[in-house]
Amino acid sequence: MGCGSFWRTSKPPKSTPPQRKPVEGETEASAETSLKVSPPFRSSRSKGLSEEKTYTPEQEAAAEKIGAALRGSATRWQVKEDYHELRPREGEPLDPQDAGFSPYAQSNPSMPVVSDHLRFKVRDVTKQRVVEQLGHDEVLSMWSSFEDAAGKLLQKVAESAQQLPPGPMKQMSQIHLFQGDEENAKEVPKEVTTGFIVRRQENYLLGKFQVVAVPVIADYDSAFNSLQVEKNNFSAVQPTTPTSRGGSSADCDGPQGFNGWFWVLHSAAPNIGESAQAEDFLAYSVEERNDAQPRRTESNHSTTSTSSRCCWKDRPTGRPSRRLNEDVYIADIARLWRNALNAMLYLEVEDAIFFPFGMGAFLRHLKLNDDRYEDPACMRTLKRRIADELMNAISDLIAPTKGKKTQARKRPPFRVHLCLVCVNPESIDNHNCFVEAAAAKAQLCPELKEVLQLRRNVDSLQLAYELGKSNPDQPLKVALLNGANRKLCGNHWFQSGARYAIDENLHRRSASLSRASLLVNFDTEPRPREVTQLEETVRFFGGSVVDLAKVQGKTKTDLQMVNIKAKQEVSPSTPTIPRAKGRKSLCCCGSRSHRKAPKSQDRDVEKASATE
After folding, report:
1. Rounded to two decimals, what is the model's pTM?
2. 1, 74, 98, 363: least buried by Cβ within 10 Å?
3. How far apart are CA 62 and CA 242, in angstroms?
4. Residue 551: its pLDDT value, please?
């Protein structure tokens, strides 16, 4: 009662350290300096001490790890210096006109800068929109994740495809699976997998040379801003409620159908350089048995390459040195380019959109597996060969050179748009490789300039949306190539990883693409699958399976005309009696001569009787 004011005004007394009392016979000054600290145990350099002390393997490993961490800190600073000062800069991107090619069809100074907050906000809106469009009315939250809602939806759809709403059902019925030649996609022999992590092949959904074409429409542009905002709806970027569907376009089951929609083609590039354990490097490499120089386990500052790597992440030891077989790798890349072009030609696409396919993360750290590619010139030669194969594929399939016989049938108008980003040294290097390849091929095939359009710092998804909207009367005349993940189309786009990967970001900006990939994957995580799982899924939803070997350079209309002619030959509208060889034709009254056509033996008998 009377203590309240006391506790509010009083302060605790300051504590003073206890004073040490001097020992008898000791002065006060000596008492302050009498406390002595023993030197560190390992600071002594005496010979006897180093011989007496021994360390366990665990202690030695800990000391080595600490030393690697210290060297790693120094390496990080060295990487920074190399990147900003010592690394040879690419300078400005090569202008196509200076190289001898047509000018840019479109050129932007840079790509939009998107904050992670906006990127993941759009991702969350897309997740909610996907489950709503598939018939799920539950609001996603930390207690109800996208994976849980997707699992419930797939269990219901697995009973019957009719469980889907009309929009997704119509979309899935238009999916095309193009079967590639999978004979060369063989397992790697076990005897050459020493020291490597062998991936489970049964977890792959997409075949090595398969292409999946899905009709989609974009919801967000390159800056993650809403492309369409319908009346009386909220913006997709700033939804007032988690279930807001603002910004989403009308579904394909509406009166407009597929107007404004375009194709997205999923195809997977070989992963030979994403990390030191890249999934496909083993299949595209050969063992170097006579290795004169031992493989380095830590990075050194090389005179041929200024790029350093983290010292604490040692190269895998205990495995033989292997070298990339460029010819095999380039041959498969060329087949992937041609498969995508053949699929687009079959779909009667007028505008095909490509990007530096397989030249990003899947090639970035190839030097960890083959140290020859620490040399920038060696890496650039490989990239140039990849670009050359695209130009060869376009020239052979779309713009044949003079001297080659062209087919008499009328080809659909075809334009190839190559989107090249120039935001860092790696992307500039890729840009220059494609510009040089296009200019070199145009000297042999001038028609290439009429077909290929180079676009600098142009977003491929936004370009596909704009081209699709420019001609609404002819839907699905635009196709965009996507570098897909073989285990899951879209990979884990609904999570926070891969902020800049094309596969994840295309899905985050298109709900129709994300829902189709969910139904194609039929799961949200990789799992063991049958070889024919993808084909069975496409047929389950009413899609089409096409053999690429039978549609080389042909459109769907061409094949339909061939099928119509074949049916007319087999079962014509006016049935007639087939005329056998050697038989007389019908007379006007419809009666046939009773004399039968002689067989080979009868002919011999008749000849013999005639001579007699």
Report:
1. 0.73
2. 1
3. 49
4. 80
